[in-house]
Amino acid sequence: MKVTLLQKQGSDQVTMKVLFLELEQHLKSSSGASVVAIDNKIEQAMDLVKSHLMYAVREEVEVLKEQIKELIEKNSQLEQENTLLKTLASPEQLAQFQAQLQTGSPPSSSQSQGTTQQPAQPASQGSGPSA
């Protein structure tokens, strides 16, 4: 996508250079009566720049919309998983987890094994909707 955009930018730049070179040659070889032609060349160049920018912006907006959609879906899935884990955890496990969050320490192997074993049975029920 970006390669195509860069190629388009390159071709637009070449077109702009040609327009400006023609304009420069026209200015050197013509009299003051060609002001209208100069204005037309300038307008063409500005239209080319405008259309290129609009194309690039539209393309970027589409990419960002898709990323936002994916992030919203992932956030929703993680919220459902979090809610399920909170309902399956015992009050002691929740207290341990809160303490670990406050101290910033990772769970020990015995604690993580205890929390992993308890929700194993109901997790098969919860894994259906998240998939």
TrEMBL record:
Sequence intervals crossing the membrane: none
GO cellular component terms given for this protein: cytosol; nucleus
Family annotation (InterPro entries): TSC22/Bun, TSC22/BUN_CS
Segments forming a coiled coil: 54-88
Keyword Transcription: yes
Region (Disordered): 96-131
BP terms from Gene Ontology: negative regulation of apoptotic process; positive regulation of cell population proliferation; regulation of transcription by RNA polymerase II
Domain of life: Eukaryota
Record field: compositional bias (Low complexity): 102-131
Cell compartments where the protein resides: Cytoplasm; Nucleus
Keywords: Coiled coil, Cytoplasm, Nucleus, Transcription, Transcription regulation
UniProt keyword Nuclease present: no
Similarity comment text for this entry: Belongs to the TSC-22/Dip/Bun family.
Name recorded for this polypeptide: TSC22 domain family protein 1
Organism (species): Bubo bubo
